[in-house]
Amino acid sequence: MTLKIDIDGGAGDAPYEQVRAQIAGQARSGELPVGYKLPTVRGLAESLGLAANTVAKAYRALEADGVIETRGRNGTFVAAAGDAAARTAASEAQAYAERVRRLGLSEADATSAVRDALRAAYGDAG
Length: 126
Known about the structure:
- With 126 residues, this protein is mainly α.
- The chain has 2 domains: 15-79, Winged helix-like DNA-binding domain superfamily/Winged helix DNA-binding domain (Arc Repressor Mutant, subunit A, Orthogonal Bundle), CATH 1.10.10; 82-122, no CATH class.
- It is built from 5 helices and 3 strands; from the N terminus they run αβααββαα.
- The chain has helices at residues 15-29, 41-48, 52-64, 81-103, 107-122, and strands at residues 37-38, 68-70, 76-78.
- It has a 3-stranded antiparallel sheet.
- The longest helix is centred in the C-terminal third of the chain and has 23 residues, at 81-103.
């Protein structure tokens, strides 16, 4: 298994976001298994024709999301992201639920707001 990233210059998303989204998607789907060693920032940047700072930004975002982890000089690896992502989503959902309750929104209004936000984030296809 190998990392496969395609950068679409005409896409609406910035190149760093395309790198981030594709690595995250491959990690979530299992295409990139936990423990898979990712290329160095410079190596990936060269292979994609991107600036090293662009790839570094994507790696920082992935690390902040718990998708990857850097082990010092040993490199950067796919982390057990599914568990981290699920925990983060549950925590954020709990915080949202508490906030909308304090604001006095009904469950229906709160759910509608989430649906609208998800549609905006994923496009109208979701």
